[in-house]
Amino acid sequence: MKNNTLYVPVIFIGIALSALLLAGFACKPEPKEKTYLIGYVNPSPAEKEGAHGFLRNMPKFGYSEGRNLTYIRCESKDKKVIESALRDMVAKKADLIFTITTPATKMAQQITKGTNIPVVFVVYEAVESGLIESLVHPGGNLTGVQLSGSTPKTLDWLLAIAPDTQNIFVPISFDTGAANKSLEALKRTAEMYRIKLTISEVSTVEALRASLASMPEDIDAIFILHSILIGSNIETILETAKKRKVLLASSGHEHHKSGAVFSYGPTDERTGWQAARLAHSILHGANPADLPAETSDFYLGFNLKTAEAIGLEIPNDILQQTDDIVR
């Protein structure tokens, strides 16, 4: 009995200590979730080649605005506004800055120089523009996604669909470096195929309409390159293409969804996902200098409604290779 009398209090003491320890753990606050401040610079809100996709895809990697992510947004074509916004991002010690277009990225590169703020970009050409040393080893504080490469293959697809094409109308506004670069790529490929290009430079919507109205009679197709003004007014171009019953092709964003017979190029969703994935890697410790830059994936899309409207039949073997079809 003496042993039992001594043993019972020991049990109660053990239970009491365990309760106190558990109570202590229960009262301990959960660690606070890290929050991030990201700069967002998009000088071309109307152009859909990565910027909007970046915003949509960041939540897929665990970043929700208002919970663990705050954006400092700048959507303006004004260089002074962009510069002021970038300096504000640096002053507020943003964890990362996202930029689209080469001029905006170069400005970010200059303003973040000497800081440890990484920049993730979406541009037409990353190496030739001098932004990074190479795709494999970017160097510095920049990495991202480049959009170049779709133009030659777009012409290949055009000729596969309409092999008798001899004269292509190319309306263009040199409102980005990508416009000139993509035109040069088209010229090289057209020369190889001995295809004539009728190039019409425009700087306003009114000039575009006038250019389309005076388009030569022997035009077989219209080709859209990486130009903000042209890509933003595809409905105007489509109206002329249908009236003249000529093929409308694009090497830019998914313009087949806006009425082009076909488009071959980057998609906003995929490019944005690639940029968001790079941003996620950097926010979790990756060094942008060693994080390979990427080339955007290209997708082929057809609009069979427009093809039918101009009397063009798309071969089945080509449709079988298509990523998206508007019927």
Task: Give the gist of this structure.
The chain has 327 residues and is of the alpha/beta class. It is built from 12 helices and 13 strands.
Q: How many domains, in number, for the residues? A: 2
Average of the residue pLDDT scores: 90
**DSSP summary, beta strand count:** 13
Written as H for each helix and E for each strand, in order along the chain, the element string is HEHEHEHEEHEHEHEHHEEHEEHHE
The stretches of 5 or more residues where confidence is low (pLDDT under 50) are: 1-8
Q: Structural class from helices and strands?
A: alpha/beta
The radius of gyration computed from the alpha-carbon positions, rounded to a whole number of angstroms, is 27 Å
**Euclidean distance between termini CA atoms:** 91 Å
**Overall helicity:** 40-55%
Write the CATH fold name of the largest domain: Rossmann fold
Describe the main β-sheet briefly: 7 strands, mixed
Strand-residue proportion: 15-25%
CATH class wording of the largest domain: Alpha Beta
Number of helices, counting only DSSP H or I runs of 4 residues or more: 12
Order of neighbouring strands in the sheet with most strands: 7-6-8-9-10-12-13
Give a verbal description of the structure.
This protein has 327 residues and is of the alpha/beta class. It folds into 2 domains: 36-146 and 268-296, Rossmann fold, CATH 3.40.50; 151-265 and 300-326, Rossmann fold, CATH 3.40.50. Helices cover 41% and strands 19% of the residues. The chain has 12 helices and 13 strands. The chain has helices at residues 2-27, 51-57, 79-91, 102-111, 151-161, 177-193, 205-213, 228-231, 234-244, 268-283, 304-309, 316-319, and strands at residues 36-41, 69-74, 96-100, 119-123, 142-146, 167-172, 196-201, 221-224, 247-250, 262-265, 294-295, 299-303, 324-326. The strands form 2 sheets. It has a 7-stranded mixed β-sheet, with helices on both faces. The protein has a 6-stranded parallel β-sheet with strand order 2-1-3-4-5-11, with helices on both faces. Helix 2 packs across helix 10 (268-283) and helix 3 (79-91) runs parallel beside helix 4. The longest helix is centred in the first third of the chain and has 26 residues, at 2-27. The protein is elongated and about 65 Å long. The protein starts with a helix and ends with a strand. The relative contact order is 0.14. Mean pLDDT is 90; it is low at 1-8.
